Amino acid sequence: MGTHEECGVFGVMAPTPVDVAGLCYVGLQALQHRGQESCGIVVNDDGVFFSHKDLGLVSEVFGKRELESLPAATMAVAHVRYGTTGSNSRANCQPIEVNHQKGRMALAHNGNLSNATELRMALELSGAIFHSSSDTETIAYIVTRERLTTPSIEEALSRAMDTLEGAYSLVLLSPQKLICARDPHGFRPLCYGKTPDGIYAVASESCALQALGATFIRDVNSGEIVVFSKDGVTSHREHCGLAPKRTCVFEYIYFARPDSVIDGVEVHTSRIEAGRILARTHPVDADIVIGAPDSGLDAALGFSHKSGIPYGIGLIKNKYVGRTFIAPTDRKGQVKIKLAAIESEVAGKRVVLVDDSIVRGTTSRRVVQLLRDAGAREVHMRISAPPFLHPCFYGTDIDSEEHLIACRHTVDEIASLIGADSLGYLPLEELGCLTCGNGYCDACFSGTYPTSTPTVRGKDRFERRLSDA
Ligand code: AMP
Asked: Exposed end of the chain (fewer CB within 10 Å): N or C?
């Protein structure tokens, strides 16, 4: 488990041909925090598709040459990926493109299907051949099959949604249309907006609309399909209201960028609230509150507001060291390159350290040690999420139970394992305060799943074993 997350989707539709690849580049840069393994852009130039995708960051995959190789056009879709299903291979780069009887289609997906195994098995038994190990190809197959017997791509997608279960925020490109859809629970965010020159943009997070200079119009509703075409914007709501709203609460805690607004709630405000709750439920006498950069900063501020303990900047993160950084010899040295303590802020002090989550406990242990080495007298760890106890089937990469420290140890044991003087987690029953009353999914904390759960588990469930003859 790194410090990284899942996927981001993006799409644009312009009234006349423009540099849509350039617009996608801007959108993907703003969504980079949602996935760093691979990225891609597919441009639709009057029904002819051009694409570029590869492993790497947006700035590594797209240089001037790659962007110029994609023509001016009216539509494009794009994706950044952190694989939660399937291995880190080129075949899993998105958006995926398929040829089918009615033309071409490109598809980018954020989320995980909880019934992917069953759906894929049924398709394979009927002769389908898969190129990748991602759920997205399964969705593409089902949509294109439905397209054979439906009059439009959006109706094919709607029919496909009858069988898909789990998390999917999708952007889809057909020869004539840009289409987006959000699953009936609305696990993953999705919204759209418009630029002053009439270009529509769809994005996983509103921060990408802002980067483009687009005005946020609204979130895509749970279960909704929105179609952008030369005839305007239409909404299809036959899957709306069929399931209770279950936005992933971890989007607010960790995934999303603080300036994004998801389903009407600003992520930054939500994190401040988490910090305030921590200060109320796990108070402590201390001299300074600091956040673990970057995901703990907003909650640390909230903790400081509520407790009255001054907020300080005790830790500095090196912005230029990515997760692919390989420490020359000693891998433990890595954290010292990524993070450093400001001695004058913490030496001799009782420090409250706020972070968003503990998975294996490795990060927390190192950060606590860093603060002690800088002279901190006490370190009180506060976590703006409840303990991770259960796997996620909807697109959050959570280690298997055997690696989750909270599955094997009590809170006091974890405190001593990470070397903290005390440890406090956000209480499960307070999570509702983070989404301002919107329905949310907290399965990774509570074990209560909104859908049936997969019979075959594990990220690599579709990787073919060598023994498969
Ligand atoms: P660990 O060292 O395993 O306890 O990892 C904890 C750190 O991983 C936290 O500080 C989080 O910022 C980060 N984290 C939590 N959940 C995820 C996730 N699903 N994907 C990537 N990073 C995560």
From this structure: C
